[in-house]
Amino acid sequence: MSDTPRARILAKELRAARAATGMTARELARTLGWSEAKVSRIETARRGIRVEDVEAMLEVLKVRGKERERLVKMAAAVREPAWWEVGRDLPEQLSALIDAESRAKRITDVTLNVLPGLLQTRSYTRAIMESVDLADEEIEERIGIRQMRQGILSRRDPVELRAFIDETALIRPIGGARVMAQQLRQIVSATDEPNISARVLPVSMGVHAGLSGTFVLFEFSRSRPVVYMEARSTGAFIDEPDDVQPFLDSVELLEAQASDSEGSREILNAYVQQYERETE
User: Fold this and answer.
1) pLDDT, mean of residues 92-109
2) For residues 225 and 215, what is the distance between their CA atoms, to the nearest angstrom?
């Protein structure tokens, strides 16, 4: 399998490993007895990446130990399609987003108008999906995909999720009072887990560092952080360090500006009680 998000990431890592040695693609090809075109196809993910080819490249590039093991595992994983690549024709943007979520060490979600997708209940997601012109079958598929994405929070090595939630997302009764009460109870319950935090940005504070727009920051064990910004029907990843730095700065400010964990739970629980009263 080639030209998938995972294949492109591996190809980028292999290019970086070669560049670190000062070896050109032509020199690497000559040493391996390959054509330069073959090296180019591998390093641009235009060719199916075989484990044995990666092992040969790493041997010549003198990549050893845990780094070699990591890259060989990546090569093996590329040949095994992920759940979102099997039997689904997902937009490339969504596939790349799910891939980033699956590889991240920590995800920071700064949200203004709706609650974080990785913490949404099925009913809350359905209410959002029903607000646009989608067929029932497509709505159900999107809900199912979003629920499967949430598995990264409860797997054996769970992703850390930090959510900064503007209070306006709590005020907006998406799906009605019953759906909101259930949704907010779930968020409170989720924060009992050590890898999940939800911090509220109260309306009373006025401005804060997240008001310029919703974004998701992905941090990885070995790769540099990237930012994902979503628009109405598309999205974009930002990965240049100078472009990512303002978002890192914003997150640092939000850490100081948001209500602490205990205060945020109190705010969330107050809204739960409010919505529950409305259902009586």
Assistant:
1) 87
2) 13
Give the global pTM.
0.72
- Dihedral sign for Cα atoms in the order 77, 23, 31, 29: positive
Residue 240 and residue 227 in contact, taking contact as beta carbons nearer than 8 Å: no
Q: Which amino acid is at 98?
A: I
Q: What does the alpha-carbon distance between residue 250 and residue 88 come to, in Å, rounded to a whole number?
A: 36
Spatial strand order of the sheet with 196-201 comes to 196-201, 160-166, 106-111, 215-219, 226-230, 235-238
In whole angstroms, give the CA distance from residue 25 to residue 217: 33
CA distances to 45, 48, 125, 131 from 90, in Å:
19, 20, 18, 21
In one letter, which amino acid is 156? R
Owner of token pair 């990785």: 118
pLDDT digits (tens, 9 = 90+) for 177-221: 999 999 999 999 999 999 999 999 999 998 998 888 899 999 998
Output DSSP code: residue 119: G
Q: Are strands 226-230 and 235-238 parallel, antiparallel or unpaired?
A: antiparallel
